[in-house]
Amino acid sequence: MLKSVTGLKDLLKDPAILRTQAYIAGEWVDADDGATFSVSNPARGDTIAEVADVTRIETALAIDAAYIAQKDWSKWTGKERAAVLRKWFDLMVENADDLATILTAEQGKPHAEARGEILYGASFVEWFAEEAKRTYGETIPGHQRDKRITVIKQPIGVAASITPWNFPNAMITRKVGPALAAGCAFVARPAAETPLSALALGELAERAGIPKGVLSIIPSSRSSDIGKEFCENPKVRKLTFTGSTEVGRILLKQAADQVMKCSMELGGNAPFIVFDDANLDAAVEGALISKYRNNGQTCVCANRIYVQAGVYDAFAAKLKDAVEAMPVGDGLSDGVQLGPLINEEAVAKVEEHVEDAIAKGGTVISGGKRHDLGGTFFQPTIVTGATREMAFAQEETFGPLAPLFNFDTVEEVIDLANDTIFGLAAYFYARDLSRVTQVQEALEYGMVGVNTGLISTEVAPFGGVKQSGLGREGSHHGMDEFMEMKYICTSV
Ligand SMILES: NC(=O)C1=CN([C@@H]2O[C@H](COP(=O)(O)OP(=O)(O)OC[C@H]3O[C@@H](n4cnc5c(N)ncnc54)[C@H](OP(=O)(O)O)[C@@H]3O)[C@@H](O)[C@H]2O)C=CC1
Ligand SMILES: O=C(O)[C@H](O)CS(=O)(=O)O
Questions:
Q1: 446 φ, ψ (degrees, to nearest 5)
Q2: What do you get for the CA distance between the two ends of the chain, in Å?
Q3: Strands of 227-360, DSSP E
Q4: Which residues are annotated as active site (predicted)?
Q5: Mean pLDDT along residues 27-44
Q6: Which of 37, 84, 303, 451 is deepest in the core (most CB within 10 A)?
Q7: 237 and 255: one domain?
Q8: 324 and 221 belong to one structural domain
Q9: Do 192 and 306 fall within a single domain?
Q10: Ligand nearest to the Cα of 293, by number
């Protein structure tokens, strides 16, 4: 049954989890000037909340509080921090349905997929609660008889994040989890489109016992201002960003003045390669999840699908059948697999790429137009006859458009796949061991899926090379982003 999101609180088992004020220094506050900005539901376009619109002034107060609180938080043992983080994880799981409803209401993805994100996001807090106990150092044999060498790892201090709307829960927990585990304090600024998921995490953090000031959540429509405060405030020692490469460049330039430690999860242009010895049914299944997860609005989505000539027609036919079986609708309706796109600009980008492909000789074999549901709904689309001259060969579509490129040889497709400034994720389906080994080593990407279209997990290092980013999130490597290494040389 379609549920109206206008009364979002009425859809929640625990309405208190829905927060619309800023969470600063452990207090829930309005913006100093009382300003708010509207949060809308992408499926219906109606406003679901008015949220405090914080400025640099309140952001600086949150940073000050973090700077003070971090001194004591860093003195907790890793085990003590782990206990609080574990409690936060437990609360996320207990409240997963409500967190998913809030996420679907503001971002649009189907509720089942939103719940999957909640559990994925929570898994980072669970993982880093465990890593908190393992921030090991090392001893090194002295270089002189009277020297003793040790290396220790210490929290970097105050960290700040700027995160996108496409994963409004997991992109925050993937950063806050390791930061708090390492003993840092954290100030998070979520995307203006999706602040409610972040604020709900703040509510649960308070319930879990994370000390006042250790975590602040800064909702704001003024993304550029908040970003400048993060980059220019000397009390901030770490900036972690997920979003477009374009904005990542801006932030890196701003952070350079303070030589601030940055991690960047940026744009992608993932190739998805199907060789003629692939299991075609498995390849279609992988293409569906890689291309159409979150309606194609993920940085690791297949952006270009390369199919070897001998299996091109069979793969295209199978993919068409599978795509046309996916129900499109309001994410709060049961059984929906594809929700709306986040906004009108996102729809325009998909339309632009479809029109460009047709103009350059491509053929739409499925979808290609706005959905009859109206608004920002778009038909899941497949284009055949794709060529490297078409816009989506170099630009990230960030929507439900699958371009199928034809290729003949391994050497040809590796060159095509690597012909991009991006290097986040790549995927390929093949069964010949020699071919698998050759291709996985030749692809210039930070992450490679072999016979799978879904690689995201908290246990592995997520991140890109080239202009897809700096650093890694998740896995034990994720802790290093929030710690400094100290070399101690003692003369005895
Ligand atoms: N590598 C990854 O994991 C991801 C990459 N992306 C990439 O981002 C693009 C689409 O996502 P989108 O959210 O629009 O990306 P943007 O880079 O436009 O926005 C990401 C975040 O940065 C904020 N922001 C925008 N401009 C500035 C600025 N000058 N200073 C500080 N903060 C700023 C946004 O705020 P606000 O929206 O409120 O203006 C948002 O919170 C795609 O290219 C996609 O590939 C997106 C998500 C994940
Ligand atoms: O921002 C994104 O697109 C996410 O990093 C994708 S994932 O972590 O859910 O794969």
A1: -75, -20
A2: 75
A3: 236-242, 261-265, 270-274, 302-308
A4: 265
A5: 97
A6: 303
A7: yes
A8: no
A9: no
A10: 2
The two structure tokens encoding residue 57: 């002034």
Tens digit of pLDDT for each residue in 303-312? 999 999 999 9
State the burial class of residue 296 (Cβ atoms within 10 Å of its Cβ: 0-12, 13-18, 19+).
buried
E-strand ranges in 295-433 read 302-308, 363-366, 381-386, 401-407, 425-429
Together in a domain, 80 and 150: yes
Regarding an ipTM greater than 0.90, the answer is yes
Please state the domain count of the chain: 2
- Distance, CA 189 to ligand 1 centroid (Å)? 11
Residue 286 sits in the same domain as residue 215: no
Whether 475 is covered by a domain: the verdict is yes
- Which of the listed residues 167, 246, 299 should we mutate to test ligand 1's pocket, taking the one with most ligand atoms within 8 A of CB? 299
Q: What's the CA-to-centroid distance between 107 and ligand 2, angstroms? A: 14
In a domain, 460, yes or no: no
Q: Kindly give the pairing relationship between strand 363-366 and strand 302-308.
A: unpaired
Does residue 166's CB lie within 6 angstroms of at least one atom of ligand 2? yes
Cβ atoms < 10 Å from Cβ of 144: 9
Q: Residues 240, 302: one domain?
A: no
> For residue 114, which of 264, 333, 325, 282 has the smallest C-alpha distance?
333
Residue of 265, 285, 473, 481 marked catalytic: 265
Identify the pLDDT of residue 1. Answer: 39
Does the C-beta of 456 come closer than 6 Å to ligand 2?
yes
Print the domain residue range for 407: 270-450
Amino acid, single-letter form, for residue 455: I
Q: Give how far the C-alpha of residue 50 lies from the chain's centroid of Cα atoms, to the nearest Å.
A: 24
Residue 166 CB less than 6 A away from ligand 1: yes
pTM of this structure: 0.97
| DSSP-derived secondary structure letter, 338 | B
pLDDT in tens, 386-419: 999 999 999 999 999 999 999 999 999 999 999 9
pLDDT digits (tens, 9 = 90+) for 445-492: 999 999 999 999 999 999 999 999 999 999 999 999 999 999 999 999
User: Structure tokens of 66?
Assistant: 């973090």
Report whether residue 345 contacts ligand 1, using a CB cutoff of 6 Å: no
Question: Does residue 216 belong to any structural domain of this protein?
Answer: yes
Identify the residue whose C-alpha is closest to ligand 2 atom 6: 298
> Are 186 and 229 in the same domain?
yes
Domain containing 46 — which CATH number?
3.40.605.10
Give the Cα-Cα-Cα angle 188, 157, 80 (nearest 5 degrees): 90
265 counts as catalytic = yes
CA of 460 to the centre of ligand 2 (A): 13
Asked if the structure places residue 58 within a domain, the reply is yes
